[in-house]
Amino acid sequence: MMRITFLCNEYPLRPHAGIGMAVQTIARELSQRGHEVTVVGLGNAVEQANDGAIQVITLQRCKLPYLGNLLSRIRLRRWLSARVRAGRIDIIEVPDSEGLLPFGISGCPVVVRLHLTFTAVKRVTGKDAGRGITFFERRTLSKNSNWIAVSNYVMDLTRATFGVSAKREAIIYNAVGLVPSILPKLPNLPGSYVLYAGKVCKRKGADLLAEAVRDIMIQRPDLHLVYVGGIFKEEGRLISEAISDILGPRVNDRVHFLGRLDREKVLSCMRHAKVFAFPSHIEACPLVVLEAMTCGVPVVFTKHPPGPELIVDGMTGMLADPSCPKEFAEKISRILDDPALANRLCQNAQAVIAEQFSLEKCTDATEQFYEDCLKGYQVASPNLRAVKFRTR
Q1: What is the pLDDT of residue 313?
Q2: DSSP letter at 231?
Q3: Which of 69-78, 178-187, 198-207, 265-274 is least confident?
Q4: What are the strands, taking DSSP E only, across 61-200?
Q5: Is it the case that residue 326 has pLDDT exceeding 80?
Q6: 98-107: pLDDT as tens digits
Q7: Which pLDDT band holds residue 392 (cuts at 50, 70, 90)?
Q8: Residues 231 and 338 grouped into a single domain
Q9: Are 145 and 258 in a shared domain?
Q10: 100-128: pLDDT as tens digits
Q11: How far is the C-alpha of 51 from the C-alpha of 42, rounded, in Å?
């Protein structure tokens, strides 16, 4: 049994993003296997809650201007150090994004899971991440040299962005949790639709998808376009307005913005979609793509990395250039026009998910990596107490 502490500012039961869902998925499974799991993050107020057997703790951010981010991280480090000294933490996992642990921790190993840093995103998109966040992210990576990357792409991108490398590393893809056999019904869903799920913004390709499907929707009067996720402002106005302009009056009444939905409702949308399309410009290992594959909907994803790591084009899904609406349109049309192809893609995708992206496989690999880190740490610090691992 290990005492594992995850650092995460997005952990459910609060509004969250992909990292929060990824942490919750692996944390719940580790807890089910008998490990003592705690999740701690920074928020607007001190809070404590429970997610099953998992203790969820929020420490209050320091709201001082300029120094607030630094003082918040110092507060988090002190809290963790006290728990380590008390023997309540064996290992800590922190995401690379935000750089929550830029000063390291003595007394136990720290694992950084590479999801995608703000600095790397800005580097790829040609924008400035800001010196503060880059400092925190770089220091978190350089001070904590055990890395799990959720794809080969994000491992390579992290090295290239920061010019640092890990001493111990592994590629462990995001895990797909079990899909409930009974999902809620959403009565307002159309009968035939292309689905997008995620932050509705340009970086995720929400506007490009509208360009891609506009002519398809004109040719198919029964086809709708459904967006699930928070709607972002782009250049001073909501992107939903830009999408409506792109689609035009002939098909505008067939676009639907459902906003943020809980996981089971998103899965229900996936299960009934004709195609799941996600023309995102930069991703690490998006859970929405893996979950769509699990739900049995044919997927069209980016041909840029990490797309080819997750999908074999024409076998387990389709890959297209996220800067080319015509290419996405061609792949979506092929699936809509060929039910046999759609069925084959779904069956192959579900087989690959079970073999390569299952929760059991991901958790096994994570446990093994933790154990290797702990053994290495104990060799380096022989006076530390030994941790007894539960055997299965």
Answers
A1: 98
A2: B
A3: 178-187
A4: 91-95, 110-114, 146-149, 168-171, 193-197
A5: yes
A6: 999 999 899 9
A7: very low
A8: yes
A9: no
A10: 999 989 999 999 999 999 999 999 988 87
A11: 17
The answer on 83 and 33 residing in a single domain is yes
Query: Tell me, what's the pLDDT at 13?
Result: 63
Angle at 61 between CA 116 and CA 114, to 5 degrees: 15
Q: How many domains does the chain have?
A: 2
Token pair 């998006």 in the structure block, residue? 286
Backbone angles phi, psi at 237, to 5 degrees: -145, 160
Please give the span between the terminal C-alpha atoms of the chain, in angstroms, as a whole number.
11
With bands split at pLDDT 50, 70 and 90, how would you rate the model's confidence at 388?
Answer: low
> How is 244-299 classified by DSSP, letter by letter?
HHHH-TTTGGGEEE-----HHHHHHHHHH-SEEEE--S--SS-HHHHHHHHHT--E
CATH number at 75 reads: 3.40.50.2000
Give me the domain span that covers residue 275. Answer: 193-356
pLDDT at position 269, please?
A: 97
* Residue 13 included in any domain: yes
pTM check: above 0.70:
yes
Q: Are residues 208 and 169 in the same domain?
A: no
HSE toward the beta carbon, residue 20, CA cutoff 13 A: 16
Pull the structure tokens for residue 267. 């899965």
- Asked, for residue 390, whether it belongs to a domain, the answer is no
**Cα separation, 288 vs 242, whole angstroms:** 23
* Cα(350)–Cα(343) distance, integer angstroms: 11
Q: What residue has token string 């995620």?
A: 198
373 and 309 in a common domain: no
